[in-house]
Every structure is written in structure tokens, then in C-alpha cells.
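Memo to structure team: turn this sequence into C-alpha cells by end of day. - J.P.
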Amino acid sequence: MATSSLLLLLADGRFPAGAHAHSGGLEAAVAAGRVGDLASLEAFLVGRLATAGLVGAAFAAAAHRASTSAGSARRRVTLGRLDAELDARTASPALRAVSRRQGRALLRAGRSIWPDAAFADLPTTPGGAHQPLVLGLLCAAAGLSRAETATIAAYGTVTGAASAGVRLLGLDPYQVQALLVGLADACDGTAADAARVADDPPERLPAAAAPLADISAEVHATWEVRLFAS
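Reply from structure team:
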């Protein structure tokens, strides 16, 4: 399969990794009245791209780089450090659990498609590895570049929430897609920034935080009735 087709496949929300079940924090933001129309959805997506998007893309690109490290033992050490650093950057226990749950789902798909990939080198942390690390190894196995890996990660942080906005707010899907087109340059810029720092030590990777999103995730996790898992 051509590289461009693989990039589209892994960026597709229909890829069986469970991303469609998550709103990226939008459901809680809508309930709190912070997002209620197209303009506030755009502001939410811009903020998400600058925080979760940048961090996730940087760690996915770093995991991609680690996958090419000589020797399984070295890969295990690097991936373990990346997992611990990403855990430290995820203040909300609910979001840590979500990231590991999505990582497990992505890993199941990856093992079915690329059984010879270095997935055994992922950390054996309870709950599994964080999703960006699994994505990095998956993209490496597919023959994608570090930059393409970061692009998929950044893209996924906004498209899932945008799709949730259509369902939660009844927004015009054509207008939401136009909004995403308008964010394309910002998404590419975030991915480029993430790919550039992938060679840095894990502790020096981006740590952009969104405290309100962390608090909202904890509140959302207590709801007995909700449309999205997070």
C-alpha cells in the first residue's frame, strides 16, 4: 500500500481504535456552557491543538524515533521514559486512563495489521502504554515518516472533537468542515513543531497544559449518563 494511502488510513476516524467514542473534552465544555456555537467550538479546537495536540504529536514522533533505535533493550528504556513523562504531563487520572485505553485499542489493531512490529518493546505499565506511543510505533511499522506521524496525532486531536460538536450541538456539518479547513495550517504547524523536537530527551518534550480541561475530565468521569466516554 502506498505511503499516502497508509497516512489516510491511520488518520481516518473509522480506523478501529475507538476514537469515535471520545469527544476530546468537548462534551464537558458544552455542558458547562463554554462551547455553544461555531465560534466557541473553533476557540476550543485552537486551544486543544496548542496543548493536547502539541504534546501528543511530540510524543508520537518521539516514539517513532525510538522505534528505529538499535536494539530492543534501548527501545524499551526510551519508550518507558516517554510513557512516564507523558503520564507526568497528564494531570487528570481520568485522562490518563483514557489515553491508555485508546492505546490498548490502537495496539489491538496494530498487532493485527503489522504483527512483526516492535510492539513488545512498549512499557508494560498497568493499563497499557499511552496512545501517542502506540501511534508512533504503528506509524513506523507502516513506513510513515516522523512528520507524518506527528500530523496524524495533531489532526486527531481536533477532528474527533469537531465531529462531536456536530452531534452535541447540532451544528451544520459543512460549516464544521469549513472550520477544520481553516485550521489546517495551524495543524500542520503544530505537527512540524512536534516533529522538530522529537530528538530531544523525553523530559524536554513539550508540556503544554490545560488545567480546565483536566478538571472538566474529572467531572465528566462522574456522570452517570453521557454521550461520549471522555
